[in-house]
Amino acid sequence: MTALPAGLFEREGNRFHPTEACRGPWDPNAMHGGPPSALMARLALEHDPGDTEWFVSRLTSELLRPVPLETLMARVETRRPGRRLQLIDVSLFTLDGTEVCAGRMLRMAVGDNGLDESALPQSGPPNAVAPEDCATYDLTARHDPGVVMFGGMVDVRPVEGNFFETPGPGQSWFRLRVPTFVGEEIHPLDRACTTADFPNAVSSVLSAEEHLFINPDVTVHLHRLPVGDWVLLSAESHVRRAGFGTAAGILSDRDGQIGTSVQSLLVAPRP
What local confidence, expressed as pLDDT, does residue 144 receive? Predict the structure, then answer.
């Protein structure tokens, strides 16, 4: 068995060197949307925290153009300062200064408001078969053998639907196998953000051999971070003859819902 890369990016100051683990399914020289989204989320979480512990509540990632599989630099700015709420803008650039990805994150200060969460209505555990009782789906099987890509960095266990083989709404467990940064542990935010970029795959309604259904953006809302290794994505896609659509999903762990994910879709025949 081929050893996994040690992470998605090697961090060298403000330079982020992608490993082959970032490669996406549409272009062998471009990244999957999950790695740059996770990178921007982590940079927003870490940016100038002061004495405050922050929680990333919302992440919107805009893929301005295909993100090349090459070294990136980042610009991180506080768009809206505040003691309890902050907006953080992150842009990713190639070394020649081309902006390829932009994100805006809403982060909130972590504090105790006195609520008794046990007395509040809860979503409860998801109505889904546990990942241990589901078969593994190989996201790389449709591609050239031996090519390292992001699909191989996640352990995927379909519960309902089977990605491109069973069109329609789908539900799958995801377990990220490598951290965002080489040499670090997998952060729960890594797990949430990378899983959040899969609604269009989990709930595809078109043949990937005949159509492109690429997401130029993703917006993730979280009300807590996942607990444990596994994140469940329950998703549904809607596409239109006019060339666009959406894919939306609910994110859960074994204890219940943790947030949502929505993607815009560019829908076109394959050239």
Answer: 67
